[in-house]
Amino acid sequence: MLITNTVHATQIPALARRSLVPALQRQGRLRTVVARAMSGPVQMPEAYPHGLQTLSPGNTIVEALRLIGPGFRLVPLDGNSPYVKPKAALYDFNGKERRWDVVESHASVGVVLYHRDLDAFVIVRQFRPAVYASLIGEAEVAGRPAPQFKDAFTYELCAGLIDKSKSNVEICQEEIFEECGFQVPLEAIREVGVGISSAGTQGAPHIMYYAEVDSSMAVEGAGGGLVGHGECIEVLALPLEASQDFVLDGSLPKSPGLMFGLTWAYFNKLNGSLGPRPAAAAKAAAAARSNPLLTEELVLKPVLPA
Asked: Which reaction does it catalyse (predicted)?
């Protein structure tokens, strides 16, 4: 039996194990990958509440923290950003000219992902400099020490900017592949609704989509974001049954889009409008078969009167 410290290979999530083990056995590096796959849950168990499981071997919050720091500073924007453009909006209201500072930005897409084999939602976690900058400001005002980088990792849906000559669904497909490592057919991605991102400053539309994945769609080596672009994204499986406790846990930094998307999908999955939950049904059937009180002989049946 292969053991790395006290971690068994069988403790790696099944999805990660199926895609990694064959290739890595040929390269003689399975021991190293087992340790890396479990580095997050083993070294930072507090980072996996509500039954969260990492699907990102070697790309967990532990690895991300090793890539960040120690420097962090805020400087004025030089005006050449391809992503945001600060401006002042001047408009007439009640006979007077008013001013409102705005930030021009791209529209975006977000995808609620449900994993059929795991009966879980697939979400992402990554370091957000804007969140860390806000935490620094709060700490300075309160006279507290600077926050830790781990406090600025937020839970989000798989998402991306609409900044290329592709359809929204094609952008969703690309982001699912780059961030989460699944290849999803375009026709399997459906639109849910449209919201507004940060109406007070940005006002750009955010279009939400829904898609389902399974282990057969996992692509070896894909997911985790683009490290060359400063991304180190951990992919997480959140059990459907625990999702609402997760959403309402105020100690966990998360996006409003994630809160709405998971809540919408949770109730629509329970009422069947988003299709069955194969893993949950199989688990219930197995439990019923193992329960001696639910055998054919003991089930109550209606009997017609003589």
From this structure: UDP-sugar + H2O = UMP + alpha-D-aldose 1-phosphate
